[in-house]
Description:
- There is one protein chain.
- This protein is of the alpha/beta class.
- It has a single domain (about 1-200, about 215-235), classed as Alpha-Beta Barrel (TIM Barrel), CATH 3.20.20.70.
- It is built from 8 helices and 15 strands.
- The protein has helices at about 25-45, 70-85, 95-100, 115-125, 145-150, 180-185, 215-225, 255-265; strands at about 1-5, 5, 15-20, 45-50, 85-90, 105-110, 130-135, 160, 165, 170-175, 190, 200, 210, 230-235, 250.
- It has an 8-stranded parallel barrel with strand order 3-4-5-6-7-8-11-14, surrounded by 5 helices. Strands 1-2 form a two-stranded antiparallel sheet.
- A hairpin with an 8-residue loop joins strand 12 (about 200) and strand 13 (about 210).
- The longest helix has 18 residues, at about 25-45.
- It is globular.
Amino acid sequence: MRVGDLLIGDESPLVLIGGPCVIENETHALSMGGAIATVARRLGVPYIFKASFDKANRTSIHSFRGPGIEDGLATLARVKEAHGVPILTDVHDAGQVSAVAEVADVLQIPAFLSRQTDLIVAAAESGRVVNIKKGQFMAPGDMRHALAKVTACGNDQALLTERGVSFGYHNLVVDMRTFPQLRALGAPVVFDVTHSLQLPGAGDGVTAGQAEYIEPLAAAGVAAGVDGVFLEIHDDPIHAKSDGQNALPLDRLEALLTRLLRIEAAAHE
């Protein structure tokens, strides 16, 4: 599969999908996109910038959601132009797809919406790559139906992303058996490491998280043979406006990618 000039799957190099959870402002998005792209290029890692223009599924009505679709897409377009990177962002309803597809290379279906047929079909009909996050309530094999909604539209450009499954209240777990099961469905597989470390709703009106486990969980996923890793990355996680508690600090990115590349090389021996 091709995203811009990048190839995903079929023994292609491990891809990084990364950026702040939400667009906080244009200056921050441009800075983060440039900093991450610099690290990725230094290590030879293909890179796709991700950030949301609207976090429509925040825990509290008082939580920051982002700049909205108009200003958010303008910011994503500037990141794309300034740093020469493909763009991934979420779509939450079918009415957003046309405008988002003008800017984004990958349209992401949020996990909570992974069974929303109209949304998936609209994204597929845009001709863009569609990244479907597996719902926290779904088994890996269930994703064959979501994937079929994309391919039925004549679009074979789909990614399947694991982001943990609900395990009791306020907890997610990742079953490493998920990755070969998703791969067997015929699409490249991405591991959303940082969202898998959320503790949904465990904070005071916010989602808590366990960023201290990013490195071991990412290492396990790469060893299991994923095609890409999805990381929320922030230069100041404590003050991030969304998902700071499970974001990777920017200054830990290069060491983590270096480790993952070594694991990937060993896994392919």
